[in-house]
């Protein structure tokens, strides 16, 4: 995995230094890496079978074929529709998704009554279908700018929808229809990023100007009040709904997304300061007033309190035990006991299984894959000319980075635990579908970025 | 905008770096502390994740493992559990391990580094060795004879091979099925509560963990001391002892159950178990010499392991002469385990030297490679070889002429000593019936078996006969079983 980064890092950030020759499409690299990703996943699948039952699982061929066909279809549509797209994004997504399927299948073996891997494979297939759809239908990302207000309405509707449904495990983030359960908040984050990017791109000059003017004349007002109004309102609405639904991981994610995009759009360090201040106030208020969150904070500060109280280890303690048991090299796929964590082991705590069975080595590799994914997103943002594209790429990449940080930090005891899905890795249909859409959008953005380079289009539009 | 995108990217990089640093903290620097947390189930899962090695009696395992498919996967099973319980102990997922299951735990569960092909190999590969086997010295026939002999009565039997110290039988009654404690379900908890609440104390290993007043069987030790010290030189000379004997310094007088004890010879006194003669002998030998001899036989040794620990038998070192007189006939606060009394008779049978008793012949890996083997070693020389020869004659007399007639075996030479130990406040309890003895078949060059039997609730009239009546037949069955199956 590190070899991959080595080969591509050499190209360097593609700032406006147009290449002298025609840009390489690198679809061959993508194909090779995708095949490697599929093979690695199949290898992991076989390793689980060998460790648990002593033979190669009979479904290995089906699993490999399924994943391989999905990856191949995705690759073909990229060849046809986005030939200049970043060649790393698709293999990373395939590898993470494949590894997630292996881990879920591996945990299924310990919980025969609750098999999640087949459903996850179906959701992954749907994700790839949506990936293909986005690639096929969306020829230019700038089209999306038009749908800013449609998307924000949709996002708010999706966010509010679960309020009508009964809570599951303390959080009102699920919609259950005819045996299917969806997490609309997962889709909403893409739509919200779209809206932020669109709005901020359209108003960034106004934001900057208005800010200075108001600062000069009124002095006590927050800069850019009127122009900022709508976006702050939307953001407050979405975070407020999430707090009502007790989906605190996602509200943290939205908060971070908002601050980062605002900062990138306006370049005002002040926003970061204000954002952090608000975050601290909010965190302290929610952490001390809301009992559900308060107990999470207590668990984080004293992960072993329940053991000392004689109630046995809680999920976080079990998660820490699992990571510790993995050590440097891990127990090997199929040989750990992360199932002790309990009911969320396949979703929120999937990383503990990776940590126990693949060790710090495997975990580092997974973190690096996410880091590469994020870095490629940012790179597309840097290379694009239009502010909307730049902001959208930044937003989408930040979603992945923040989500990885919040959930991985939670299960390893770095920050208080908030329920969220590890992108691609964790059980969760909505999540895996959303992440495929994110990757599709990033692919489209990177394709546009390199196309621009190739066509040597005019000077950069953004001067911030 | 480029600058700010770069900064945002740097922030994301920082977040992911923090994750890596924190993962390193958990997985490398603090992993040991998490691993050792008592609430962490992983060590138990690993321990019970593979079948435990077997405990073997005469080539046949008396234990087994059952795959339950649960989290603690393999449960211990026992063949003829109650028969071998004093040897195997139990291996419970909840209540721990006892006896051989405990003493040889690291071999049985596979964690012993000696089981590895190469040292540290398993630390590198994270493999676990299959559980090794523990081969015992027990003779199934002797064990069964003792178990059947005790029947429903409370008591214990210990049998040894005098020349080596091999433990041939170790039985305690009432017994229990160790398999009932194996699992971690409510059944095991019920069994645990029932066994601990039982008035018969089935979990108590009476052969090695319970001490009894040895009563007249202790006269073997007193006789050895007297002969070694030269207090008695001729077995058939009168001992100038009165009947009744007034304990020195008191007005308490000691009487006999048997007749003809006044001035009796040592031979007569031994065969008919004259209390007066031996009480006076002990006083004549003196506290120091008595203590030395008792210790040479193994009394007051708290470090004995076979390989599980044996409760120390005691002979007091600070007594007045009256107490010494009582101690010399196995009363006052002299106490002995059945195994200790088997050692006493084994010493007589083995020319005076006490062999260190052992129950484990060898331990092997699952594939049969020997990991460790026990060897015979001399613990102490308890008496001169000549004294041992004369004691053998005295003990033969007990069986041929005296109180131990019930222990006689055809085509074999048998020596023995009966005992009845009074206990309780004012000696109110039902006396313990004792018999210790050894046997040598006519075609053998040395005694092949030494045995000690104690029956707690001997259902007989109070008297010397009960040792011969209750305990001697059991001892005979055990000794016959050994002689019959001797190679």
Would you mind describing this structure in some detail?
The complex is a heterodimer of chains A (464) and B (487). By secondary structure, chain A is an all-alpha fold. Chain A contains 16 helices and two strands. Chain B has helices at residues 2-29, 31-35, 42-47, 81-88, 99-103, 105-108, 121-125, 140-150, 186-197, 219-229, 266-272, 275-285, 287-297, 321-327, 338-349, 385-400, 465-484; strands at residues 55-57, 60-61, 63-67, 74-78, 91-92, 96-97, 133-136, 155-160, 167-173, 245-246, 253-254, 353-355, 360-364, 370-373, 378-381, 412-421, 432-441, 449-455. With 487 residues, chain B is an alpha+beta fold. The chains are: A mainly alpha (464), B alpha+beta (487). Chains A and B meet through helix 9, helix 13, helix 14 and helix 15 of A and helix 1 and helix 2 of B.
| Strand line-up across the major sheet of chain B | 2-1-7-13-14
- The proportion of strand residues of chain B reads 15-25%
Strand content of chain A: under 5%
Largest sheet of chain B: 5 strands, mixed
Helix content estimate of chain A: 55-70%
What sort of overall outline of chain A do the alpha carbons produce when their principal axes are compared? globular
The Cα radius of gyration of chain A reads 22 Å
**Secondary-structure element order of chain A, as H and E?**
HHHHHHEEHHHHHHHHHH
Number of strands of chain B: 18
Class from helix and strand fractions of chain A: mainly alpha
Please count the helical segments of chain A: 16
In brief:
The complex is a heterodimer of chains A (about 475) and B (about 475). By secondary structure, chain A is mainly α.
Features:
heterodimer, A: 464 residues, 16 helices, disordered N terminus, disordered C terminus, B: 487 residues, 5-stranded mixed beta sheet, 5-stranded antiparallel beta sheet, 18 strands
What is the secondary structure topology, with strand pairs?
The complex is a heterodimer of chains A (464) and B (487).
Chain A: H1 2-9, H2 27-53, H3 60-81, H4 89-108, H5 117-137, H6 148-160, E1 175-177, E2 180-182, H7 184-217, H8 225-245, H9 248-266, H10 269-289, H11 291-301, H12 305-308, H13 315-326, H14 350-383, H15 387-411, H16 429-455
Antiparallel strand pairs in A: 1-2
Helix pairs in contact in A: 2-3, 2-4, 3-4, 3-5, 4-5, 4-14, 4-16, 5-16, 6-7, 6-8, 7-8, 7-9, 7-15, 7-16, 8-9, 9-10, 9-15, 10-11, 13-14, 14-15, 14-16, 15-16
Chain B: H1 2-29, H2 31-35, H3 42-47, E1 55-57, E2 60-61, E3 63-67, E4 74-78, H4 81-88, E5 91-92, E6 96-97, H5 99-103, H6 105-108, H7 121-125, E7 133-136, H8 140-150, E8 155-160, E9 167-173, H9 186-197, H10 219-229, E10 245-246, E11 253-254, H11 266-272, H12 275-285, H13 287-297, H14 321-327, H15 338-349, E12 353-355, E13 360-364, E14 370-373, E15 378-381, H16 385-400, E16 412-421, E17 432-441, E18 449-455, H17 465-484
Parallel strand pairs in B: 1-7
Antiparallel strand pairs in B: 1-2, 3-4, 5-6, 7-13, 8-9, 8-18, 10-11, 12-15, 13-14, 16-17, 17-18
Helix pairs in contact in B: 8-17, 10-12, 10-13, 10-16, 11-16, 12-14
